[in-house]
Amino acid sequence: MMKTNLHPAEQRAAFLPPALRWWPVFLRNLLVWRKLALPSLVGNVAEPLITLVAFGYGLGALIGTVPWGGSGQAVPYLVFLASGSICMSAINAATFEAMFSAFSRMHVQKTWESIMNAPIDLRDVLRAEMLWAAFKALFSATVILVVMAALDISRSPMLLLAWPVLLVAGVVFSSIALIVNALAKGYDFFTYYFTLVLTPMTFLSGVFFPRENLPGWLHAVSECLPLTHVVELVRPLFLGHWPAQPWLHLAVLAIYGWVAWRIALALTRRRFRS
Description:
Radius of gyration: 20 Å
Oligomer: single chain
Distance between the termini: 42 Å
Shape: globular
Strand order of the largest sheet: 1-2
Structural class: mainly alpha
């Protein structure tokens, strides 16, 4: 029998179809994450829940209801905030994973270079990182949804449809974060993205207050932000309604995700060539 010097994991990767060669890398990240699952879960879930309790129950008791949608329907501020917070939590989880954790594996630990000694190329590694970050986003959002259901904030059966939307949001924002990852020289570089991009986007996308209160020009800017389209898809589901223009929002997210992925792949390849 012919002997081979390949590691068993390399042998398995060699027999996978090219479209699935990201799976061993995804599985590797999952196995490593199991050791850190509890602190990671606390970090991703505790902060949005504390924000929800503090602002939702505290500020919500003062505000009462807020207008929502074109008809100006009044909805409890707690539900309004919860539906925005779940979107914010999903994109934050994807962003942190695709920036800090991916940068550690790529630059600090040189894990990506080791993986590419197997029959797995850079595209497979990057795709695995993107999907892994999206999975982390979905996992964090799921835990928060369970807690929200336990608190009786919303028990609409239509919330089940929020899962695929939040998974798509994870893919989009992890792809955007991988662009920043490819450009970063150190962890400090990520401060620019969080301070100048992600934080303003969170405030302009209708997470904390209705976008209708924004000035006209700022409202127009908010229409172009990917988080706005995630919120516009998820919030109606909390209230037991179908989203208005769902295909438009999904199309915008698909364009953001595809363009961000192509740019992230090109920049990462350039980084590894240099």
